[in-house]
Design brief:
Number of helices: 10
CATH architecture of the largest domain: 3-Layer(aba) Sandwich
Structural class: alpha/beta
Largest sheet: 8 strands, mixed
Order of helices and strands: EHEEHEEHEEHEHHHHHH
Number of strands: 8
Radius of gyration: 21 Å
CATH superfamily of the largest domain: NAD(P)-binding Rossmann-like Domain
CATH topology of the largest domain: Rossmann fold
Distance between the termini: 35 Å
Shape: elongated
Length: about 260
């Protein structure tokens, strides 16, 4: 990307804002002197050479691209005029029209990274407003490629759905991990052994899927067809309502994302 880029992260003192900052610095997308970050109470001791402030308007004034990384509930009182600039929201539920009106710019993007941004493995869906141009799109892609992988989606409805599916990130594997560990411990396996075993299963599976590119459904059916212990486990989980539980959970997250935007 030609020319120096000045990026500001409102909420740069938080975990997600900090994870994005780390990723774009490591990727060389921005130089420390061209990165501005805001915090609310105590300035973090990181990102030497970057500009720290509690004044979000001052951050916006010295930035070409403004990433808004605050809790959706804290966003309405955030009075920042970003006239004509590119604003990228990483907040769940806040709609493009709301962002454009609130920040006085027609160049706005909704995105939803997940917690894996901290290790450069986030999946980030995003969508831009009509005012977003090709260079803006290239900037958005570069930022979220630095955090992991990204896709531009076709509608805000898609972002609302993916808020639950991918935005929840490690929460779902963690939920499965916890259930598996609890069962192992209940059956007499030592907790440290159970944790290593279950963690290895999830980490190894993720890397295998990433490397092979195989469709998960094909993997499941291959195990079912083998008619061994894994098939017995899969069939018991399905009979207990596993698929329905997942659908219900994702639907609940989708509905929450929609209502969060309505209440902001």
């Amino acid at each position: 990307m030609s020319g120096s880029l000045r990026i500001g992260i409102i909420g740069g003192g938080g975990w997600l804002g900090g994870a994005i900052a780390t990723s774009i610095l490591d990727a060389g997308l921005v130089q420390p002197r061209d990165l501005s970050l805001s915090y609310r109470r105590e300035q973090p001791h990181r990102f030497a050479g970057s500009f720290w402030t509690t004044d979000n308007q001052r951050l916006a004034d010295r930035s070409d691209v403004i990433i808004v990384s605050v809790r959706p509930a804290d966003w309405p009182p955030l009075k920042v005029d970003a006239y004509g600039k590119l604003v990228i929201s990483v907040m769940a539920g806040i709609r493009l029209s709301q962002l454009a009106e609130h920040h006085n710019t027609d160049r706005v993007v909704r995105s939803l990274p997940n917690a894996a941004a901290e290790v450069g493995k986030s999946y980030t869906p995003w969508i831009g407003s009509g005012g977003v141009n090709d260079r803006d799109r290239a900037i958005v892609c570069a930022i979220f490629d630095a955090c992991g992988t990204q896709d531009e989606v076709a509608s805000e409805n898609g972002i609302d759905y993916l808020t639950g599916l991918s935005g929840s990130g490690p929460a779902f594997p963690a939920l499965l991990t916890d259930a598996m560990m609890r069962d192992a411990v209940a059956r007499g396996i030592k907790p440290d052994v159970a944790r290593r075993a279950v963690t290895a299963v999830l980490v190894g599976s993720g890397r295998l899927f990433e490397k092979s590119g195989e469709c998960p459904a094909d993997t499941v059916e291959a195990f079912v067809g083998y008619r061994g212990t894994t098939a017995a486990a899969i069939e018991a989980m399905r009979a207990a309502g596993f698929d329905a539980a997942v659908r219900n959970g994702l639907d609940a997250a989708f509905q929450k994302s929609v209502t969060m935007g309505e209440h902001s």
